[in-house]
């Protein structure tokens, strides 16, 4: 049995953005947009082991897409988000060609602007993933996670959330194609001093295409999309301008420092959307496997 490399561990932190980016304090962000190249290049028939990792991104909300899709002035908030995770990878003897993983993840969130300061631990997430390899250079899998609304009051989404995605990875020579599509559903949001709200469901898609120019360097391009349905206020009815969508594109560089150690950096910008802050974010990913 073989042990996972650094790219195999990276995938399990990505699900946090699906929930923390939709909180009251953090309105921007496309679900699972933190993935990088080789995120789902996952092997099978490996020895069980544990890992930790740290992801982060910074976002400035200086522009918004309005209800007509035009870019207008935004709230000028500056958001910093980190993800600290523990993950256990394992396999079952009864399923020798299936990889499995269980994860617990804790977001750290800070939102700042003149007259506003909100920070704390976000809602923790936990869940499972399973995958197979149709061929030596491809991976297909399914993951499902639960968000638990026990984070700091200033940044908690105050909903139970579920996320399910289908993911895949394909290596074609020096070219790597990695991506996923998924669905998010949330429970009714209960908040002191406010009406109960049923958030709209979200569908999303994320893709990365990388080219290895050197054994240590892989530039890549990124595309992310999300669309969220209408939210409903239990008292007032439909929440105005709650239907949203966004398409963002960007590029970055993956540095393979060593087999267990990697660093990825990327910039993303929103190119089209409605009723959401324009993505304007730098992403950083540091992963270590032992």
Q: Would you state the CATH class?
A: Mainly Beta
Oligomer state of the chains in this structure: single chain
pLDDT < 50 runs, ≥5 residues: 1-27
Fraction of residues in H or I helices: under 10%
Task: Count every beta strand, where a strand is a DSSP E run of 2 or more residues.
Answer: 17
**Sheet with most strands: strand arrangement:** 1-2-3-5-6-7-8-10-11-14-15-17
- CATH architecture verdict: Beta Barrel
* SS class: mainly beta
Determine the mean pLDDT.
Answer: 88
What is the CATH topology descriptor?
A: Porin
Cα end-to-end separation: 15 Å
The general outline is globular
Count of helical regions: 2
CATH superfamily: monomeric porin ompg
The main pleated sheet reads as: 12 strands, antiparallel, barrel
Integer count of domains: 1
Radius of gyration: 19 Å
Beta content: over 45%
* H-E order: HHEEEEEEEEEEEEEEEEE
In short:
The chain is mostly beta strands and 290 residues long.
Can you describe what's shown?
The protein has helices at 6-10, 17-20; strands at 49-65, 71-92, 95-113, 116-121, 125-135, 138-147, 161-172, 175-186, 197-198, 202-211, 217-228, 232-233, 237-238, 244-258, 261-274, 276-277, 280-288. A hairpin with a 2-residue loop joins strand 3 (95-113) and strand 4 (116-121). The longest helix has 5 residues, at 6-10. The protein is mainly β and 290 residues long. The model is unreliable at 1-27 (pLDDT under 50). The strands form 2 sheets. A 12-stranded antiparallel beta barrel has the order 1-2-3-5-6-7-8-10-11-14-15-17. Strands 9-12-13 form a 3-stranded antiparallel β-sheet, with no helix packed on it. It has 2 helices and 17 strands. The radius of gyration is 19 Å and the shape is globular. It starts with 5 loop residues before the first helix and ends with a strand. The chain has a single domain (6-288), classed as monomeric porin ompg (Porin, Beta Barrel), CATH 2.40.160.40.
């Amino acid at each position: 049995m073989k042990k996972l490399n650094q790219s195999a561990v990276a995938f399990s932190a990505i699900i946090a953005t699906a929930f923390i980016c939709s909180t009251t304090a953090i309105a921007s962000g496309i679900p699972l947009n933190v993935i990088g190249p080789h995120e789902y290049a996952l092997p099978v028939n490996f020895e069980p082991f544990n890992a930790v990792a740290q992801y982060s991104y910074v976002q400035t909300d200086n522009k918004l897409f309005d209800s007509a899709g035009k870019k207008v002035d935004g709230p000028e908030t500056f958001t910093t988000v980190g993800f600290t995770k523990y993950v256990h990878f394992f396999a079952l003897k009864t399923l020798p060609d299936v990889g499995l993983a269980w994860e617990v993840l804790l977001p750290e969130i800070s939102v700042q602007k003149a007259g506003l300061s909100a920070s704390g631990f976000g809602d923790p997430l936990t869940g499972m993933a399973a995958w197979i390899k149709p061929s030596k250079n491809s991976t297909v899998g399914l993951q499902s996670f639960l968000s638990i609304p026990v984070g700091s009051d200033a940044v908690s989404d105050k909903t139970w959330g579920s996320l399910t995605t289908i993911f895949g990875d394909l290596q074609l020579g020096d070219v790597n194609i990695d991506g996923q599509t998924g669905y998010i559903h949330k429970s009714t949001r209960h908040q002191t001093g406010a009406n109960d709200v049923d958030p709209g469901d979200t569908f999303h898609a994320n893709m990365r295409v990388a080219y290895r120019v050197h054994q240590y360097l892989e530039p890549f391009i990124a595309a992310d999309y999300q669309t969220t349905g209408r939210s409903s206020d239990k008292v007032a009815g439909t929440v105005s301008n709650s239907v949203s969508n966004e398409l963002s594109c960007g590029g970055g560089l993956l540095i393979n420092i060593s087999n267990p150690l990697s660093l990825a950096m990327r910039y993303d910008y929103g190119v089209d959307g409605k009723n959401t802050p324009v993505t304007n974010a730098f992403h950083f990913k540091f992963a270590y496997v032992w």
